[in-house]
Amino acid sequence: MLKIENLHTNVEGNEILKGINLEVNRGEVHAIMGPNGSGKSTLANVLSGNENYEVTSGKVTFDGKNLLDLAIEDRAREGMFLAFQYPIEIAGISNATFLKTALNEKRKYAGLPELSAKDFFDLIKEKSKILKFDESLLQRAVNQGFSGGEKKRNEIFQMLMLNPKLALLDETDSGLDIDALKVVSRGVNTFRSKDNAVILVTHYQRLLDYIVPDFVHVLYKGKIIKSGTKELALELEEKGYDWIKEEPAEIN
Amino acid sequence: MSEEQKIIDNVTDSDYKWGFVTDIEADEFPKGLNEDIIRRISAIKEEPEWLTEWRLKAFRHWLTMEEPEWAHVKYPKIDFQNIRYFSKPKQKPQLESLDEVDPDLLETFEKLGIPLDEQKKLAGVAVDAVFDSVSVATTFKETLAKDGVIFCSISEAIKNHPDLVKKYLGSVVPYTDNFYATLNSAVFSDGSFVYIPKGVHCPMELSTYFRINAMDTGQFERTLIIAEENSYVSYLEGCTAPMRDNNQLHAAIVEIVVLDNAEVKYSTVQNWYPGDKDGKGGIYNFVTKRGACRGINSKLSWTQVETGSAVTWKYPGCILQGDNSVGEFYSVAVTNNFQQADTGTKMIHIGKNTKSTIISKGISAGKSNNSYRGLVSVAKGAEGARNFSQCDSMLMGDRCGAHTFPYIEVNNNTAVVEHEATTSKVSDDQIFYLNQRGISTEDAVNLIVNGFCKEVFNNLPMEFAVEAQKLLAISLEGSVG
Q1: Which of A115, B85, B288, B384 is 20 to 30 A (C-alpha) from B323?
Q2: Degrees (nearest 5) of the Cα angle B254, B260, B264?
Q3: DSSP readout, A67-92?
Q4: Distance to chain A for B430, nearest Cα, Å
């Protein structure tokens, strides 16, 4: 579904991603791990089209389309979802209005009619149950006055509502206590299916106890230097990153 | 170019859609102002002697006054002798029905979306249309008359209800009030008059549309609204003008008198021509709007959405004389390109337990300047007065300015006065977040701006809220780079 070939990216003139190759298929969960500053968040942002990140070379195909040619909103409408590391607050727009607008934009793009008010609220009921999401948060302005945990939960809630083909989770586990982590993980596990894929960007192995990945990749200085299965994450937990840094880069 | 800059530049490029000129023969006065011109205005309108004298007193007082310079706006000095003070579309003197109105005029109002034709009546809204200096047609007169409601042009009111006009004209905004109000008192041409009798809940919304058409003509309309005991009325005002390279002056007065237990809601969507993207042309909107809540438990709400004019100078106020009277001010002011707005309100607490609420939302884009200026004054005898003010500014880009000038004068220690202010920016992060959820930049900006203004839009009557939202959307049209 997603194929990244030799992707190079600059941020404010500095090269952050230095030739990423990665292939993600339907039904797969990939974890991207790595020390601070290795380019993990850059990867998530550049895929979703953040204009602060400049692609200098490389190719990304998403569901047969050239992803880099698509506008940010069209990437979203095609089914790419980014759960933000730091969700943005927007005063004045209720969470419900925001979600309804987003959902209908996606439906319009797919040639579907707008969702009726009843269907929309039924969907909210169904999805909020999974996350024990407080429905009063829907009437509040987007992320405004939300606690750190509520913001992260709101990201996963939006993911469930929008039902993307590919979800990019950018350090969704950071700042969560263990109960919140379990709830968020339940959301992601419910979402997982043979038709979609997930890329988890994380620092810690802890998240992978709850969301078990099919593949783990280690990103270091802008390159994937090691790929493996879930056992690799455990090894990293035990030994840290230093032992890999010394190994020669593995070719995908 | 950043996304924001693109939005701003595109906003800048969007056109003013109401800029057509209607080719109608007009009776115009020569340019300039003197006692003779004032006598001619009064004579052409067949006014009683007392009113002619009142105008002349105002004019003589005006000659002693200086143009105010304290507002946070800059514009070249106005040459008051280079303005035409009266322009009237040529037509039969007495209109018996709408059939007699010049079809070109009717077409103009059609273009503006104001169906004057009662057959095609806009659901439950009575309209008075003022074209240049003259009120052209008032709809629903008969329906309203059944309840004793008087809704007509102020010229007609002077002829048909002289006692009411004499009693209240200038009673809220005296002819000595301020430079522009004094000028208006001397030369006002027409405007609307509303009288709601005791105990009457006005059965429909009343609406006035103002249109400046003729060149080099100042528009000086004057509106007088009187709400007797236990009455209610909701009044709407809309304004547009053609695109002209030179600046045109608009100096209006609105006076409102609210008696015991009565309530008046006054809503404005102001969309005068703002000038082009280089700051050329546009209306100077120097307006005095004030209401007196004279009765106990009386209430006056001002709601305004200001998107037009090159320079705006406007402070709709409430004089809260009656005990327990309530004043409200809800405002959205949008400035763009080189527009300048200095607007806000005055809440004067005199009676006991009087309450006022001020919600002001300023949006600045382009190279514009947007200032909130508000006065909350609590008199010595105003036991238990209460005010809450919230002034929020939103900046789009980094070439515009937002300013807040709150003035608070409290002379009674039981008063509670609260003032909150925030400044926010439409950030690239917000746009990216919304884009990432499948919402285009144009829709994202509309969502953010509408969200920012929600508290004010909620106070507009339904049809007007829709119009206001459309107006904001049009101002932001083409914002995807």
Answers
A1: B288
A2: 35
A3: GGGS-HHHHHHHTEEEE-SSPPPEEE
A4: 6
CA distance A244 to A140: 46
Q: What is the mean pLDDT of residues A63-69?
A: 94
The pLDDT assigned to B15 comes to 61
Q: A73 vs B452: CB contact, 8 Å cut-off? A: no
- Burial grade of B425 (CB within 10 A; 0-12, 13-18, 19 or more): middle
Cross-chain residue pair A91–B424, CB shorter than 8 Å: yes
> For residue B429, what is the nearest residue in chain A, using CA coordinates?
A88
Q: Does A251 reside within a domain? A: no
Give the minimum alpha-carbon distance from A90 to chain B in angstroms, rounded to a whole number: 7
Contact B165, B244 (CB under 8 A): no
Length of chain A: 252
Share of chain A above pLDDT 90, in %: 74
- Give the burial string for B10-27 (b: 16+ CB within 10 Å, else e): bbbeeebebeeebebebe
Q: What is the DSSP string of B320-358?
A: E-STT-EEEEEEEEEE-TT-EEEE--EEEE-STT-EEEE
Q: What is the CATH number of the domain that holds A236?
A: 3.40.50.300
Record the tokens describing residue A130, joined without a space. 């999974």
Return the closest-CA partner of residue B5 out of B279, B367, B396, B336.
Answer: B396
Please state, in angstroms and as integers, the Cα–Cα distance from residue B166 to each residue in A249, B54, B154, B192, following that order: 93, 10, 12, 15
Interface confidence (ipTM) of the complex: 0.95
Average pLDDT over residues A162-179: 93
- At residue A171, does pLDDT exceed 50? yes
How far off is chain B from A93, nearest CA to CA, in Å? 5
> B360 forms bridges with which residues in the sheet?
B331, B391
Contact assignment for A52 to B454 by CB distance below 8 Å: no
Q: Which of A67, A70, A88, A155 is the best residue to mutate to test the B interface, defined by the most B CB atoms within 10 Å of its own CB? A: A88
Q: Which residues in chain B show pLDDT less than 50?
A: 1, 4-5, 7-8, 10-13, 92-96, 115-124, 478-481
Chain A residues within an 8 Å CB radius of B3: 51
Cα separation, B48 vs B127, in Å, equals 27
How much helix, strand and coil, in percent to the nearest 5, is found in chain B? Answer: 25, 35, 40
B317 contact partners, CB below 8 Å, separation of at least 6: B289, B290, B291, B327, B345, B346, B347, B348, B375
Residues B438-474, buried b or exposed e (16+ Cβ, 10 A)? bbbbbbbbbbbbbbbbbebbebbbeebbebbbebbbb
Hey, is the C-beta of B4 within 8 angstroms of any chain A C-beta? Answer: no
Measured in angstroms, the CA of B356 and the nearest CA of chain A are apart by 23
B121 versus A2: which is more confidently predicted? Answer: A2
Quote the pLDDT of residue B120: 39
Residue in the block written with tokens 């419910």? A190
**Residues of chain B positioned with their CB less than 8 A from the CB of A73:** 435-436, 438-441
Which domain covers residue A188, as residue numbers?
Answer: 2-246
Question: What is the rounded CA–CA span in Å between residue B184 and residue B193?
Answer: 16
Subunit contact A92:B450, Cβ cutoff 8 A: yes
Rounded (10°) angle between helices B3-13 and B428-436? 90
pLDDT at A252: 44
Q: Let me know: does B361 contact B332? Beta carbons within 8 Å.
A: yes
pLDDT tens sequence across A30-60? 999 988 888 999 999 999 999 899 999 999 9
Q: How many domains does the structure of chain A reveal? A: 1
- Whether residues A72 and B452 touch (CB distance < 8 A) is answered with no
Contact B451 A102 (CB under 8 A): no
Closest approach of chain B CAs to the CA of A122, in angstroms?
Answer: 20
